[in-house]
Amino acid sequence: MRAEEVNDLLIAVKEGRLAPDDAVGLLREPVDDLGFAQIDIHRELRQGLPETIYAEHKTPEQTVAIAERMLAGTTGPVIATRVPKVAIGALRARFPELTHNEVARVAVLRSEIGESPRGLVSVITAGTSDLPVAEEAAAVAEACGIKVERVTDAGVAGLHRILAARAPLAEADAVIVVAGMEGALPSIVGGLTGAPIISVPTSVGYGASFDGLAALLGMLNSCAAGVVVCNIDNGFGAAMCALRIVNGKIR
């Protein structure tokens, strides 16, 4: 449920189109219990962030059932992340209009609808191997109505590449930097722009990268002040952090 939906309920009560008790009933329960899942239908009302389906390890039937209930219960974006191939087939059979970002493993059943973007976020990848995580961040942000500028394969092994991208860095409301290996790129970007930096370590790298732990520790120890760090491979979390920043500017 969204703030504008609550406003519509109150207007309907005021105009006599909806009984007060019915409005109270719609507002009373913040959770829609499906038995195998409890959907937080008031999350967007509280946080300004949409409830999202984490589809990994769910059955296709569970994912479809949650999506059906969410589409019926809100006018906001409905997104599924980490969607297995078998679940994409089931979702597409039920919702042929969905869009699927195969690299990101993100399915968007409904995007935020607005006359203009809610904000601008730059998503930067150190290498092509980081694209699945970066695309997860980009696809989720776009579904939430944010304009995304992508800068790909701009890691510290060739500094001229990130220096050439200073324009999108300067214009962005937030910058998401996705990197594996030693995770040095967020420090470089943090020294080039005053925009909030959201860094995401990836599990990309050779043996001593320890599946992203080296990049995580490198980002946590960034000498660029004010750089925040998400968990390893958490592109979704980075997109939600960017949405919080954009929502704060809108207010």
Describe what you observe in this structure.
By secondary structure, the chain is of the alpha/beta class. The chain contains eleven helices and eleven strands. The longest helix has 16 residues, at about 235-250. It folds into two domains: about 5-110, no CATH class; about 120-250, Rossmann fold, CATH 3.40.50. It has helices at about 5-15, 20-30, 45, 60-75, 85-95, 130-145, 160-165, 165-170, 185-190, 215-220, 235-250, and strands at about 30-35, 40, 55, 80, 100, 105-110, 120-125, 145-150, 175-180, 195-200, 230. A five-stranded parallel β-sheet has the order 8-7-9-10-11. Helix 9 links the parallel strand 9 and strand 10.
Key phrases:
single chain; 251 residues; alpha/beta; Rossmann fold; 5-stranded parallel sheet; 4-stranded mixed sheet; 11 strands
